[in-house]
């Protein structure tokens, strides 16, 4: 779908964890365009920040989008200050998202701010659903996943909540095994999970996080390597347009 910039209205914007906010935007056209695993570009009001910020979609309503984002720079810091009723400029949904598979047991694996897109995905999966989610310190969105019938396992780097360690270590420790895997989070986590799934002969879809300039394939600022039968053994694909979701087996890690 081609990019379209639209004007939305902030219905709520609340802090749910340290430096993590949940914003609900009313924008019917953007909501109708969206699917699990896609993202939108949010535009700041400051003329000093021309590039939009890509934010993954957490939940899709009839006329609303719920976004959960981390405050990591000036742009997201500005978004965190928005109040109910404020206007916000955004695009309709961008990128290729997750493809729900037919499976008996689905395993959703998320790391930090990679957890939000798994919430909408969970609504579209039939069968048993397990989420293995990792954080540095405090978890978030685990309650919402449980409301959707997902069995949740938590790992934290500090051990303050749940298992002390990373998500792959947690899955190995608890013997968590499914038929199909989906994941979003930091690249080292995705690489480790792709190796875990490859060793067990299980398919996995991974949502890659890369810095994006435009968000729709024009600037070539977010390329990744995917395996290819050519002289160099790989080809460059654009995370924003060809992804952000790829099969773990096709990514040249």
TrEMBL record:
Q: Known SUPFAM superfamilies for this protein?
A: Ferredoxin reductase-like, C-terminal NADP-linked domain, Riboflavin synthase domain-like
Details of cofactor binding: Binds 1 FAD per subunit. Binds 1 [2Fe-2S] cluster per subunit.
Q: Superkingdom of this entry's organism?
A: Bacteria
What GO terms are given for molecular function? 2 iron, 2 sulfur cluster binding; flavin adenine dinucleotide binding; metal ion binding; oxidoreductase activity
The leader peptide range reads: none
Residues that bind FAD: 53-56, 75-76
One Pfam family matching this protein: DHODB_Fe-S_bind
One of its GO biological process terms is:
pyrimidine nucleotide biosynthetic process
Q: Which InterPro entries match?
A: Cyt_c3_hydrogenase_gsu (IPR012165), Dihydroorotate_DH_ele_sf (IPR037117), Dihydroorotate_DH_Fe-S-bd (IPR019480), FAD-bd_FR_type (IPR017927), FNR_nucleotide-bd (IPR039261), PyrK_electron_transfer (IPR050353), Riboflavin_synthase-like_b-brl (IPR017938)
Q: Which CDD domains match?
A: DHOD_e_trans (cd06218)
- Domain (FAD-binding FR-type) ranges: 3-100
Which residues does the record give as [2Fe-2S] cluster binding sites?
A: 214, 219, 222, 240
Which cofactor is recorded for it?
FAD; [2Fe-2S] cluster
Q: Does the keyword Iron-sulfur apply?
A: yes
Q: Which UniProt keywords apply?
A: 2Fe-2S, Electron transport, FAD, Flavoprotein, Iron, Iron-sulfur, Metal-binding, Transport
What family does the database annotate? Answer: Belongs to the PyrK family.
**Name of the molecule in the record:** Dihydroorotate dehydrogenase electron transfer subunit
The protein's organism comes out as: Holtiella tumoricola
